[in-house]
Amino acid sequence: MKKMNLATQVLIAFIAGTILGIVFQKDILFLQPVGDIFLRLIQMIVVPLIFLSIIGGIANIGDVRKLRRIGSKILGFYVITTILSTIIGLVVANLMQPGKGFDTNMIVATGEPIKEAAPMTVGGTILSMIPANPLHALSEGNLIQVIIFAAFLGVVMTMLGDKVSTVKKFVDEGTQIMFTLTDLVMKTTPIGVFALAACSIGEYGTAIFSVLAMFILTHYVGAISVIVLLYLFIIKVIAKYPLTDFFRKIISIWLVAFSTTSSSGTLPVSLKVTEDEFHVKNELASFSLPLGATINMNGIAVYYAVTIIFVAQIYGIDLTLGQQAMFIFITTLISIGTPGIPASGIVLAVMLLNTMGLPATIMGMIVGIFRPIDMIHTALNVTGDVVSTLAVARLENMYDTPAETADMEILAPHVES
């Protein structure tokens, strides 16, 4: 196992865990503490890793104008891909019609009780991103507030330049410490993925054959459609990255995303693979990926789109193009404000249904089968982060190795003079 790369180890662990979960079903749940320990280790490193890497990434760019240019491109990719993911989700749901013929008598309140979320507004969302107490945000793990505070510090350090060289050295060394600690935690990834996959399949595996099978299938088709229609275009046309290499390198990120169902929990692996395998410069990856893990929720956008159409079809409610257009705007806003943690979309989906004037009763039933849905959408979330980062890396020439750039130029000979 030591001679295998991380992706191979994780793949073997995921397959083995899946098989044991199918064979032993709920009897395999004695492994749950092992998976919980792995998740706790991830949680332990995420906040300081994001805090230091964001500061260091921005400070190392070294030029406020360059930072403005790179930041605007990253945010532009995140917002545009979220909007397009929502549209693709709506189209797929309208074509597949997962709620057509669904018997409303099957709707029962199962699983955990669902609490209604407070209505979300543009002003409220922006305000909630700004920390009133940065230390409180750090201690509570409020990632979007941590990122905002770290971004301000990084920008100020960039403006001050050599005047804060001592602080910059401290941040750089602290980042190196966190990356080393991350490497140590990542060595336990195959064990954690094995336990999480076994327990997830053992507990939820049979749910995919329930009355919600078409609902689940629509989510997977929607996610795959985003990859095929949107991500492949960005990878090939904008990032100009070899597709076979991309999918070979992204597999380890997918497997951890499937297991943790957390964009933030997958972040350490995303950072490591993006820098070590895709060879994106640290100052870009350490800025783009933590930001993406918090605000770039393409998978959640697809989830909201499919869920809205599903519920509307169940109750025979026809949503007009105007209503669906309004839904795209609301979904983009909500997706940006959705934390990258497991099952965060449940409560916000209730709020979204209420906002659209649709019944939320079905959500009690969806809770029981949310895990397999969350798996594919988390994978889509983190893939979107990497794809957008590669696109910006290409546009800004922010790859570490000349060989990587040369490989991509093979796909784009027309740009050579």
UniProtKB/TrEMBL annotation:
The positions making up the signal sequence are: none
Its domain of life? Bacteria
Q: Which GO BP terms sit in this record?
A: dicarboxylic acid transport
Identify the keywords attached in UniProt to this record, alphabetized: Cell membrane, Membrane, Symport, Transmembrane, Transmembrane helix, Transport
Give the bilayer topology: Multi-pass membrane protein
> Which PROSITE patterns does this chain map to?
NA_DICARBOXYL_SYMP_1
Specify whether GTP-binding is a keyword of the entry: no
**One GO molecular function term?**
symporter activity
Q: Where in the cell is it found?
A: Cell membrane
Coiled-coil residues are none
* Classification via InterPro entries: Na-dicarboxylate_symporter (IPR001991), Na-dicarboxylate_symporter_CS (IPR018107), Na:dicarbo_symporter_sf (IPR036458)
One GO cellular component term noted in the UniProt record for this chain? plasma membrane
User: Where are the membrane-spanning stretches?
Assistant: 37-62, 74-96, 143-160, 191-214, 220-239, 251-271, 291-312, 324-341, 347-370
Concerning Pfam families, the annotation shows:
SDF (PF00375)
> What is this protein identified as?
Dicarboxylate/amino acid:cation symporter
